[in-house]
Amino acid sequence: MLQGKSVCITGTDRGIGLAMTERLLGQGCIVYAGGIRGCHEELAKLAERYPDKLQAFRLDVGSDESVKEAAKFITSKTDRLDLLINNAAILGDTVKTVHDELDFDDIQRVYNVTAVGAIRVSNALIEPVMNGGKLIVNISSEAGSVGSSNREAWFGYCMAKAALNMGSTIIHNKIRKEGGRVLLIHPGWVKSYMSGEWNPAGTYTAEEAAAHIVSRIEEHGDQLRELPLYIEADTGNELPW
Questions:
Q1: pTM here?
Q2: What is the pLDDT of residues 82-92, one digit of tens each?
C-alpha cells in the first residue's frame, strides 16, 4: 500500500519518527521529514542513501508560525500527500500526583505539542492530504484511553493523548464525507528519549515499533469507518476510548 507513496512525518529528530522515515524511504516513498533539528546528521545520511526521496525541514509543531512555514515548504514541492503521520510528542512529568505541587506550565506545554500539534499540522496540510491519499495517522497512546485509565500521575501526557483522540475524531467526522480517514495508533512501550534522556526500559526498539506502525497502516489505512480506528501497533487490537 505504501510503496512509492508521498508521506509527511513529524517528530523525525530521533526515535519512532526517524525509524519510520528510514523504513518508508526503503519502501520507495518520498518522505517529508519534519523535526526540531531540521536536517540533522542522521537524516543527512539517509538523504545520501535515498537521493531525491527525502525532504527534511525544521518543524516545531508547538508553534503556529513554524507549522505554517513548514506547510509552505511542502506545498512548494507538491500539491498532494498520500499520507500524513503526526508523530511529534513530548512526555512531561510522570511522577507528580494531585497531592504534589504541579507544574501547570509544563502540563500546558505537553498539551500544546502532543495534542494541539497534530491538529495544527493537519489543519495546515489538509489540502494536499485531501488531494492525495486522504489519510492521516496520529500516533496516540494507550495513555489517552479513558476506558482503561489506571495511572495516578502523567497529567500532561494522558490528558494530551485523550485530547488528541478527540481532535482526531472531529477531523475524521469532517473528512470521511469525502473519503478521508484518521487512524489512531498506540506504538507500544518503546525505548526512547521522550523523558528527556535515554530510557532503555521498554518492550520495543524504535525500529520495531516503526515496523509495527507501518504494518497497521498498510492493513487498515483504506478502511473508512464511522469513527477512527484506535489500535495497538503490535497486536492490531482495538483500544477502549
A1: 0.95
A2: 999 999 999 99
